[in-house]
Amino acid sequence: MKKIVKNGIIVTATDTYQADLLIENGKIAAIGHDFPLGGAELIDTRGSYVFPGGIDPHTHLEMPFGGTVSKDDFETGTIAAAFGGTTTVIDFCLTNKGEPMKNAIQTWHAKSKDKAVIDYSFHLMIGEINEDVLEELPVVMEEEGITSFKVFMAYKNVFQADDGTLFRTLLAAKELGGLVMVHAENGDVIDYLVNQALEQGNTDPIYHALTRPPEVEGEATGRAAQLTGLANSQLYVVHVSCAEAVEKIAAARRKGYDVWGETCPQYLVLDQTYLEKPNFEGAKYVWSPPLREKWHQDVLWNALKNGDLQTLGSDQCSFDFNGQKDLGKGDFSKIPNGGPIIEDRVSILFSEGVKKGRISLNQFVDIVSTRNAKLFGLYPQKGTIAVGADADIVIFDPNVERTISAETHHMAADYNPFEGMQVTGEPVSVLSRGEFVIREKQFVGKIGKGQYIKRARYNSSATDATDKVSN
Ligand SMILES: [Zn+2]
Q1: Labelling 420: which of 99, 147, 323, 402 has CA 20 to 30 A away?
Q2: Looking at residue 464, what is its pLDDT?
């Protein structure tokens, strides 16, 4: 059915203007004024912002980790994402050494198909490089449209890959048109520091942060960036948390290296003192990299503003406080890493970023949506308001105020790390390919309606178009 989105202020990564949208067959068919109604459904936005649906480039839904499985799956996770103004998620498909990657991808299809309410895609973890992997990679890219590969430099004896694997992945990505993503922390040094802390009887959650200091993130980020330059390849550093890592990314970019950086809401608004909360509550705030001293937040905001960091991911990986996080009682190294973030990613960036004058409205759209579409081969099907693009649209009230709370959120986890935080601005309605998923703050979507999206190969020239976003 045709729809007309009326009286909205269209916001893209480059422009802000008043116009109506005509939606037909799931796509934006026209942008203009005074479209004849002609049987179309009229959606009056009453002057709200209308921007492209958020693209969350970093989620771990129903992921096995640390002897448990992340709580939000592709159903609860994508419903919560939609409530928060996100219409596409890219989840990390974990692979097992010695097994065909195809098997892992099938596992991820099985847990997402018939569950997701918005569109989704996968990144692929590379744990080792051998002849089998090199043979399978081009096939996976062609058949599955997976064009980004994740290498872990941390989690020793679990996910961690060595530098040879990282370098060969960078070379393969260069040849095949892929984007290499790294979790940049020095896993060997962390392993030593964690064992030392535990031997000394230091078992509380705060030691999670103290055994993963900023230097280990800065060192690994610099190492990955240097190897990228050597391979003349392309790199995306996930969940940048500290000044030390920002410096390395900025330096690499100044050299002309094709290096990009993502941060997450938790690093922008929470700090290391949260890990010191009594009664084991610090476990709610265990991420890797860990929360940092508060002054790092200003560095991250400035990096988003000046373009040294370009994107915001949620790193959604939720665990209940009761029954999952408490696996680490008496040993911080056994606390499952991660938290429920997917729902509040867009709101927090708008409220803390745009409303507080740290970034512009157009930068906000670029950071939560457009840039992610460009980097990960979804643009211009997704990530913008343009004729021919998917009608993935958020109608956003920029003035409404709300308090974030586990009592009202739609994620499955039993707590919210931003509990009690006041935010300004909230999605009112959200459309995925022209159909309402959220309507007037109510879920009206269909379980399983989300489609798996094959993505195009990495194209560095496509990513440059909004390098300089006007303020
Ligand atoms: Zn992650």
Answers
A1: 323
A2: 56
Q: Pick from 122, 98, 96: which is nearest to 110 by CA?
A: 122
Whole-number Å distance, alpha carbon 60 to ligand 1 midpoint, is 6
β-bridge mates for residue 423, sequence order: 402
182, two tokens: 């790294």
Beta bridge partners of 235: 180, 259
Q: Indicate if the pLDDT at residue 303 is higher than 90.
A: yes
Residue 238: C-alpha distances to residues 26, 305, 311, 381 (Å): 31, 18, 9, 23
Q: For the chain, what is the radius of gyration of the CA atoms?
A: 21
Q: Ligand 1: distance of its center to the CA of 467 in Å?
A: 25
What is the CA angle 456-460-462, rounded to 5?
Answer: 65
d(CA 27, CA 24): 5
* 375 CA to centre of ligand 1 in angstroms: 17
| C-alpha angle 445-446-452 in degrees, rounded to nearest 5 | 105
User: How remote is the C-alpha of 370 from its chain's centroid?
Assistant: 13
Give residue 399 CA to ligand 1 midpoint distance, Å.
31
417-426 pLDDT, tens digit each: 999 999 999 9
Q: How far does the centroid of ligand 1 lie from the alpha carbon of residue 96, in Å? A: 17
CA of 31 to the centre of ligand 1 (A): 37
Task: Give CA–CA dist 86/411, Å, rounded.
Answer: 14
How many Å lie between the centroid of ligand 1 and the Cα of residue 59? Answer: 6
pTM: 0.97
CA of 220 to the centre of ligand 1 (A): 16
Nearest Cα to 306, choosing from 247, 355, 264? 247
Q: What percent of the chain has pLDDT over 90?
A: 96
Quote the ligand 1 centre to 289 CA distance (angstroms): 10
Reply yes or no on whether the pLDDT at 471 is more than 80: no
Q: How far is the CA of 159 from the centre of ligand 1 (A)?
A: 12
| 352 alpha carbon – ligand 1 mean position (Å) | 22
**Ligand 1 mean position, distance from CA 42 (Å):** 40
Split at pLDDT 50, 70, 90, the class of 465 is very low
Distance from C-alpha of 91 to C-alpha of 93, rounded to nearest angstrom: 6
- For tokens 């990314």, name the residue: 249
**Structure tokens given for 220:** 């690994």
12 phi and psi angles, rounded to 5 deg: -120, -175
